[in-house]
Amino acid sequence: MNGRRISYFEASARMRLSGLVDADSFSEFCPPELRQTSPHLAQLGAPQAFDDGVVVGRAKLAGHAVLVAAQEGRFIGGSVGEVHGAKIRGLLDKALVKRPAAVLLLADSGGVRLHEANAGLIAISEIMRAVLRVQAAGIPVFALVGGSCGAFGGMGIVTRLCAEVVMSEQGRLGLSGPEVIETVRGVEEFDSRDRALVWRVTGGKLRRTLGEATRLVDDLIPAFRAAAADLIARYQAHPLAPASLVALLDEQARLAARSERFAGARDGREIWQAAGFADASRVPELSVAEFNLHLGETS
Amino acid sequence: MNAPATPSGRWDNLARSRAGRLARAAGFATGRLVSADSIVPLLEAVIEPGDRVCIEGNNQKQADFLARSLVKTDPARLRDLHLVQSVLALPEHIDLIERGQVSRIDFSFSGPQAGRLARLVESGKITIGAIHTYLELFARYFVDLTPRVALIAAQAADREGNLYTGPNTEDTPAIVEATAFKGGIVIAQVNEIVDRLPRVDIPADWVNFVVQAPTPHYIEPLFTRDPALITEIQVLMGMIAIKGLYAEYGITRLNHGIGFDTAAIELLLPTYAAELGLKGKICTHWALNPHPTLIPAIEAGFVESVHSFGSEVGMERYTAARPDIFFVGQDGSMRSNRAFCQAAGHYACDLFIGSTLQIDLQGNSSTATKGRIAGFGGAPNMGADARGRRHASPAWLRAGREGRGNIAMPRGQKLVVQIVETFREHMQPTFVERLDAWDLAATANMALPPVMIYGEDLTHIITEEGIANLLMCATPQEREQAIRGVAGYTPVGMARDLRMVENLRDRGIIRRPEDLGIRKRDATRDLLAARSVKDLVHASGGLYDPPQQFRNW
Question: Architecture of A13-173+212-242 per CATH?
């Protein structure tokens, strides 16, 4: 327990970036001094941020060139507005030209910014298409999910389009957030204040068990860095191949079967039981190393 | 021959009274064992109007089944009772007053019932003898407030009536000893009756009746603080305490009050204090409940010994697995003892540090607020100079020199520290010209304003602005300016004399974080050895089993 451990969950977007990439390698696009703020928030008299809640730029990670975007969950829940979305989309477009080893999306977002919903929805669809374009060009996009807002709504979809999803247990991934489900379907459907249940259903351990997250790491910035560096090395050795129709159909069939198999499941415990964990109720207590050991991998 | 000089001409009235009560109760018990159904008539048979009764209510363990049963007794038969117990925590304690069965109380702490109690005092339904500190009330059990009937709580009994109180022994030995040896009657509620106890904490011949409660007695997890809620201001204040006080004086023996400020210090020991090379030099011996936030420091080898007032829910397996650190019976489970630990905190510790709600310009501090009679608990015993102390230690001697100057007769002084943010919840200033305790004393007709720690005992104040060393203040004016000088933007702080405060800073009486070589930007939560309750579980190797309300997994 000795020494400082830098929590990814508690860090700001800029702190995450500075611990994630090689020291002094980051160079920001559209930096705060350009004051590219949201025109919609200004009209509503709402607080603005000089980076509109997302930091984008280029950097090195373990010596490899990468493009990175880090959402700031502390600014309106990391929500995607017009400028915010354009910055991510622009970054992805740049990847087609610069051909970095990977694009890293540090997602920390509840989804579209309600203040500028139409622009945000369009931005999300642009980001989705851009991710697919970049990956079709052989450049993998990694989503890193470990912030307090998780990756929900449109950012949940974007995350699932990425070639790799690295999560911490604290990270959450889903479409509708717990509060939204409770508001729409009632507390009987999902009690958003039962934090343990929320994490058992949306948290990193369940997402990893289901294969939606491809890595589960400790809530430490260096752990995310190590996972990203390892993934880059793997894609350098085995470049991303365009998805074949057969593979896509197989994946579609696998997901359909999974959705049928767990249609009645109400809690992550049922899935852990099905996944062969000896004591499903104890899974949340396992350390990341123990959990990964059970899944048959080393972290 | 001399005839006995008592009105009845006898010397065994207490024993005969006890025998009479036991005879009346015989029909409701089988030997010492009473069934839960028979407890109400048994209480009616044993208790007499005007009796002093203790319903064991510690700040954690509660004799809740016996309290509920007492509320079911006939108010015409059991009335004018005088409650003498450390804590009024359960609604039933106050129900007894509302039902007219209790007319007088002597206690220490009323926490959750503070508001109801204040209303009953104002309406004249109850007379408060006094609000004590724990040690003071236990002392009076052996002088002029001895219970006639004690209703206590234990984990288990055997069929003879021996009791196992286990980790949460708390007040039980003090209550039973006073009652059993002065003609009183002891009735114990237990969670289970077993053939063989792990160990005997209270021998059967001090106990008159045992009843198995339908549900286990309630225990409040009072000392659990979720590291996730510790703020960076609290981290900064913890760094100031460690570097500016603990390291400076070489504090090895200490007590921490409850709160997030002290939890932050505990979680900084294996990180920040270790980086400063303080392992083995500070915080080795404690009078402290088994705080979950101390786990990382224990695991890092910082701590040599911890004696506890009570236990803490979920810490049972951890304390049992660390018998070199905690006080553990030969059966393998911890034993606590509030009376002994209070004495240890008063006499054998060099430092007490805790939080409060209000501090005035003389340094008096209080947690009293209008409309709530909350009482004290144990803090005043820890947070007071032990003037009877005769053993020396470097920290104690240095504080004595700072406080008394180089006078002919060497004396030491205990370090008594308040660690507070300048503003508390809802932007209420912590520093005030006048304590709310004065108004409470007036409305509740108290002889003394309820002051938690007196200014004359207070040696240091730590806020986010730095440390004020009150020992080194030469005059009351300097002392006032030293307090204003760390009171931030509160009205009291704004009214500081800038020149005097800068002079105090030049003399090291006020020390800012930068004077201590602490950079405020270093005060981040990343310094905490655990940032969540789950981190504490992992640090304990899975031995700590936190209660449900502290889990988010």
Answer: Alpha-Beta Complex (3.90)
